[in-house]
Protein 1
Amino acid sequence: PMVTYREALTFHMDDEEVSVIPLPRGHTGGDSIVVFHSADVMMTGDVFRTVMFPLIDDADGGSLNGLIDGAGFAIGLAGPNTTILPGHGPASDRAGMNTWRDMLMMVRDRVSAMIQQGKTLDEVVALHMTSDFEAKTSRPAGSGDRFVGQVYARLKAGKS
């Protein structure tokens, strides 16, 4: 890269003020949010998706709790009319981002409860814990089970 950063950067393009804000480890260890202030648009990359369950990229430093925290941070930045551009899928808004963050927390908590009950990965995946989110989120098919498997593996290993 030509430019690296550890803290937020702000620059101007024409009449637009643009901020690039690094996030804690989430989808990867290098996630950022880009905010176009005058346009009231936020680009989140894969911290938020409107058509797929998340992918926590272990090889590049991803973190489940970081993904949740990044979504919360974006919610805090978004105003009532902010357009949020996800990494995959159509544009959304603050309410959509809120639903996403709530889904992440619910899946984490559901899987954690099953681990505490001694359930195996296969038993947990067979419960289809994401079925209440499938109609809006699961493209491609099976990404909910993949996500549950990732959450299970992280929690079972004591990672977040």
Note: The first strand starts at residue 9 and ends at 13.
Protein 2
Amino acid sequence: SVGTHLVKNMKLSKFGNFLIKIQLDEIPQLLNVLKSDMSLVGPRPCLFNQRKLINERKKRGVFKVKPGITGLSQISGMNMKTPTLLAKTDQKMIKEMNLYNYFYYIFRTIFKIFR
């Protein structure tokens, strides 16, 4: 029930830190993409206890689209620490979504992982 941005490094094993650093911890979400529960690009799913983020996203209609593995917030380096800004960025991404941006977010994410 805690986002990875709140987990202290001392609570994770070296292997866990490695997985998070290179974002391999996201691989199970690919199964959700294959099941069509998620998209590759979209707002990141939030935890049930992130009330402020949930409320901000509801106000902005973010829940009307499928959640995704990556998006504008991720390539911009945002996380769940700033719920209002995150919800506004998700809303902007949704409004500006097109085929070019979809693939742009994917390639920027890949570039960021290997950088």
Note: The longest strand covers residues 39-41.
